[in-house]
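Q: For a teaching session next week I want to show students how multiple molecules come together into a single three-dimensional assembly. I've collected the sequence lines for a complex. Could you give me the predicted structure tokens for the whole thing so I can convert them for display?
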Amino acid sequence: MDDACALRITLLSRPALLSCVRRTVEAWCSLTGCAEAELAAVGLAMDEAIANIIRHGYDNSPDGSIEIEFHRDGPTVQFTLTDNARQVPLESICSRPLDEVRPGGLGVYLMKETMDEAVWSHRPEGGMQLILRKTMATSPEVTMREHDVR
Amino acid sequence: MDDACALRITLLSRPALLSCVRRTVEAWCSLTGCAEAELAAVGLAMDEAIANIIRHGYDNSPDGSIEIEFHRDGPTVQFTLTDNARQVPLESICSRPLDEVRPGGLGVYLMKETMDEAVWSHRPEGGMQLILRKTMATSPEVTMREHDVR
Amino acid sequence: MSADHTFAVHVESTDVAAIVRPVGDVDLSSSPMLRTSLEQAIAQSKPRTIVDLTSVGYMDSSGVATLVEGLQRTRRADSAFLLCGMSDRVLSIFQISRLDAIFTIADTLDAALGTDT
Amino acid sequence: MSADHTFAVHVESTDVAAIVRPVGDVDLSSSPMLRTSLEQAIAQSKPRTIVDLTSVGYMDSSGVATLVEGLQRTRRADSAFLLCGMSDRVLSIFQISRLDAIFTIADTLDAALGTDT
Ligand SMILES: Nc1ncnc2c1ncn2[C@@H]1O[C@H](COP(=O)(O)OP(=O)(O)O)[C@@H](O)[C@H]1O
Ligand SMILES: Nc1ncnc2c1ncn2[C@@H]1O[C@H](COP(=O)(O)OP(=O)(O)O)[C@@H](O)[C@H]1O
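A: Of course. Below is the structure for the complete assembly, covering every listed component.
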């Protein structure tokens, strides 16, 4: 994965910012020249990830901090989300069984389904880290900009 | 101006990131419930500001760092852009006269025209700072979200 | 003209149906408003409750959860719950979570108003 | 289907005109490509060089600078330079910078092809 982080977003744990982050992520991913459906998948995964940090990590408190680092290596995008929220047992981060229909319990499933990888860990300095990664299908045009994105 | 910075973006001085930052700024400003034309104005000002930092501040080197803090107080949005680029005399930051038609020399004019305020300064720790500020015309709906944006 | 990221929900009713029309993206910031309007619509005890998603470009799992809740409430009240006007993007989240088989999904509002359930 | 933020420029020519069609946002990252295509088009020495902006949703001052450069080159070559297909957003940057009076701006490509200059 490329070492230089070309973009980083730091936000407070406020639901109103979700739409803004989604659009940023989609615009940034579109630099890979991928298909619309791929953008939508990554936008959804990021939305679910941040919503979970806000609700489960920060218990809906609006003043928690969330940082997202954007990395890219060719067609592969990787996002590292870090927070200072409480550390929960990693095995508790899992969705309800799909056939047990009830409100909620889908976010983690959606992240795993739409990304190639969604991996949570505890940060040694406190808080949680989530890595979301996906290799996008690219179109030929993208090589034109290869040199100045990443 | 609200003290808590709800959003901050850090990017490298790469032209490919302009479209992404523009979209972020427009999505974030739309939380004020302002008119489309206002969004476009702020997106343009931000694009011109970053393009100038890339070209004039960092001489098109792709590894300069640019930080944008997003602030909001009701209908007023304010962006603080900081860089570690060279400090130029502040009076040199001005556009060509409009009637002298030649390529270039419009960016600073466009920023001043589309924003209420565009103020450059030297940061004591090195690098430049630019504050862009504008009070947007809002629609009534926006009060619904007032509590969790800013 | 107001910007496209603000959110609103309109509730309308006919003899046979209460129609809920969210306008904008449905995510964690807007789904509580959708839930409130949905509760109001269901409280009207019409034979049908219809959620018209024509003006919804995006929905996340908090929106889906709100609709599942609506479905369960109407079931208890023995009334029909229908979704219509879904864009491909919105439909895909129902498909991924295999809820497209649980909900009654009509193409258009007219179809939802005319569907026998 | 490719994403809408990638950029491309198509150049086409008829007996009387070279037509340049940028597709996507014109900003600091894409204006160099527009410049290259514009130079190629102007080098064809047609009576008219037309830039069709129908598929350009956004332009910043680097795009405007590129077009001013094109205008000046064609003037030296004694050929006409026309813009067409501008959205309101793109037009507004020409208006703010008072360049709408300097350029010949046609509504549509047909108008640009038919306009006497
Ligand atoms: N960032 C997080 N911090 C702490 N716990 C989390 C986090 N994300 C997910 N979880 C846990 O995983 C569970 C499943 O999450 P999810 O699939 O999104 O469904 P829901 O949030 O509706 O319960 C949550 O109920 C929660 O216990
Ligand atoms: N961020 C910056 N750092 C250094 N100089 C700047 C910066 N922004 C603008 N300038 C100076 O202001 C001048 C006018 O800028 P502008 O109006 O954008 O036109 P142009 O960039 O085409 O020259 C530039 O030529 C440059 O000398």
